[in-house]
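User: Hi! Is it possible to get a structure for several chains at once, not just one? Here's what I have:
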Amino acid sequence: MNEAIFLKTFLSKLQDQKLHRTLKGVSGAQGAHIVFEGRKVVNFCSNNYLGLANDVRLVKVAKKSLKGEGLGSGAARLICGNMNSHVQLEKKIATFKNVESCLVFSTGYMANVGILSALCDREDIIFSDKLNHASIIDGILLSRAKFKRYPHKDMNALEEMLKESLGYRKRLIVTDSVFSMDGDIAPLKEIVNLAKKYEAMVMIDEAHSFGVLGSQGRGLAEELGVEEDIDIHMGTLSKAVGSFGAYCCGSKALIDFLINKARSFIYTTAMPPSIAAASIQAIEMIKREPKRREKLLENATRMRDGLQAAGFDTLNSVTPIIPVLLKEASTAVAFSQKLFERGILVQAIRPPTVPENTARLRVTVMATHSKQDIEKALQLFSEVKEELCLT
Ligand SMILES: *Cc1c(COP(=O)(O)O)cnc(C)c1O
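Assistant: Yes, the chains can be modeled jointly so their relative placement is included. Here is the combined structure:
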């Protein structure tokens, strides 16, 4: 098959299955209200949970850094790209997370790929929740370790797998803290107990919980009181922190090891210093302004309760990520389109991002949504449900 035919066949198959995706444009800055494809809409699909992505104080800090440190970092961290703001950011995160040491990566995707492929190889085995993020899966594949996927949050299945996995050098259990398409949370206490019993390491991905959960905003491990029992804490600066990049926290030895072994850290240019500088300030705001977190969780509860009252299945969501299960990809797309025409932006999530026949709308709420934003969305959800004759 020649290349043109190969590409065309692939794309037309996607179109037939209603799974084809295209890029849509946003004008202006991120926020609870944005201009999407030229239309003003209330934004219910951003991970900018605390509204920090366009916070004036953060923009100011970034500007100041741009003036002093310039735009680009010029090189990888190990060469000559390790600038003041990078070092300060890692100190800030380590102190905030109460850990020995921290290493910043350019993205969450790169952090997961780098950490997992550095830590494990053919002699090791990795246990991964079936709904873990794609970057975790890619990291495991790249590591070439034995890859065991356990059914979503199924601790009995995980224990059976641990029992049967003799003869490996290292055993690592890895899980999202908050599952990004379902909005439910990992049973970290149970995972930590199994890890102790079967001498496994634990790595968690707090992408959707850092800045959101825990009384101080440190994440799900804080909320569940298991921070000390986690070997590898990964989280992102691109979601609640409103910036860009990711962290890995752990022992001094772990960070030293990653600096020397993680290829997605070693062979890439350091993040722009202004991004690091703004991230420092954002973490300070997360620490000092718990009100944002409270408002976020209040909005999430109202949205989830309202959707459930209107007869929608929100799966086991307990976070600001609220799935609305519609099953058919075509239904999800039509529903999303009708909401958009009425000024509400909610994306349809389809396979392969989620399993077959579990297409859904993925609603995410922000601290900066007003009561009216939420009530308007709820009303329109009910209207569209009726219009599409969904029961
Ligand atoms: C978003 C996300 C990532 C990737 O982070 P980026 O900084 O966007 O690359 C990793 N893990 C999970 C669970 C995520 O939701």
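The first helix runs from residue 3 to 16. The pocket of pyridoxal-5'-phosphate is lined by residues 107-109, 112, 133, 135, 176, 180, 205, 207-208, 236, 238, 246 (CB under 6 Å).

User: Great, thank you!
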